[in-house]
Amino acid sequence: MSNQYGSIPEIVKKILAVLPGTNCGGHGGCGKASCEECAVAIAESKDVTLCPACSQGQADEIAEITGSPAKEIYKKVAFIACAGHAAGKERFAGLAGCAEAKEKGFIRGECKDGCLGLGSCVEFCTFGAMKAVDGSIIIDKEKCNGCGACASAESCVQGLIHMIPADATNFIPCSSCEEDDDKVREICGFGCIACGECERACPEGAVSVVNNHAVIDYDKCVGCIACAVKCRKKIIVDTLHDLSELKEKVAFVACSGGGRAGVTYGDMGLASCKEAVAKADPKELGLCTTGCTGLGDCTRVCRYDAIHIVNGTALVDTDKCVGCKDCTYACPKGLITIVPYKGAKMVPCSSTDDYEDKLEVCGFACVGCGDCAANCPNGAIYMKGKHAVVDPEICEDCNVCQYVCQRNVIRERKVPEHNYIQTEALKFRKGE
């Protein structure tokens, strides 16, 4: 048995027998062209952790063979910094590989920084830990041994694959460099908008915004979930907790509907709220001019199945809602706002029409009498455009407004008495 090094010494043979044995093609983390070269380098340097694919047991065996001190292995696995929903992948389907797709270029409305979905990286994984499923790359953490071949520039032309600690629990699946927040939201619901809330909340300084997206420094991260709680878009993945409970705020639809608009617009052949706003005149149709159109633009962008059309009007399931705000951007009428999850009184009406017009089109409308505002002991209610608005930051749920509202418009939104994990998580924030 010989190679460029001549006859292989016995120690190299022993090391070779311990190594995982599947060459990474020169793309692995050891930086060598083959396991044979890696074994030679280990024998010469006594670096028992040179091969990143080795388990702790294998590293201990190599230490015994080389007479070197044993070292603790910090196991790493591959992670793709993209949720796999990047716009544009369908156009690339059928191409030979990711390099060809990138060379072909991107068009307006596509994510130029996301996964191309053609699976070129899968070919570099010699341990069967990666596969392409419907344009998304799936990594099997149980099979991934951290060799690092998939993270090479040749494997992923987008530079999306990183080696992270195997025991990591927080992940940011986005690499978007787009500066425009609105465009990020249009392109991908999982896109980071670089708001910096996670960076400010991290007590360890482990999160930073780089090239318009957040990045976790795993050498500093302690898995405290403060970043997941404070993330405005709720795209930070936390594998230890239920994200629907890790929230400070949720969405609220300022309209109680009546069920008529969606049916009317549907009969007209209109398919979306945006289309209805552009093409239909609600006043001519005998509908509320400011009410919910009921065609579900908000439901289509919700990643958590937290908003549905109920009796013709959008309604938020606060148990599922995480307060990501995607629905607020999708509503062409601006009816959806973000309110504290802790619960408060709400006025589900945004009508600016006159008193008589409101009564004709909706039996649930606020008529703007002002009794609630005049009687609120905390000054938490004010009149805006002929309807009442509750400031949830001031409201103390005293029930006076509900008592004086003659039309029973004001609703009480109660929060279930379940575990408030977010309260504990927020204690990790700096300065608190």
Structural features, described:
The chain has four domains: 2-66, no CATH class; 76-238, Alpha-Beta Plaits; 248-341 and 416-432, Alpha-Beta Plaits (2-Layer Sandwich), CATH 3.30.70.20; 343-414, Alpha-Beta Plaits (2-Layer Sandwich), CATH 3.30.70.20. Residues 1-5, 418-422 and 424-432 have low confidence and may be disordered. It has 16 helices and 18 strands. Helix 1 packs across helix 2 and helix 1 (10-18) packs antiparallel against helix 3. The protein has helices spanning 10-18, 35-45, 56-66, 89-92, 98-104, 181-187, 197-201, 226-230, 260-267, 273-279, 297-301, 326-330, 355-361, 371-375, 400-404, 421-425, and strands at 2-3, 6-7, 76-80, 130-133, 136-139, 161-165, 170-171, 207-210, 213-216, 237-238, 249-253, 307-310, 313-316, 336-340, 344-346, 381-384, 387-390, 411-413. The strands form nine sheets. It has a two-stranded antiparallel ribbon. A two-stranded antiparallel sheet has the order 3-6. A two-stranded antiparallel ribbon has the order 4-5. It is 25% helix and 15% strand. By secondary structure, the chain is an alpha+beta fold.
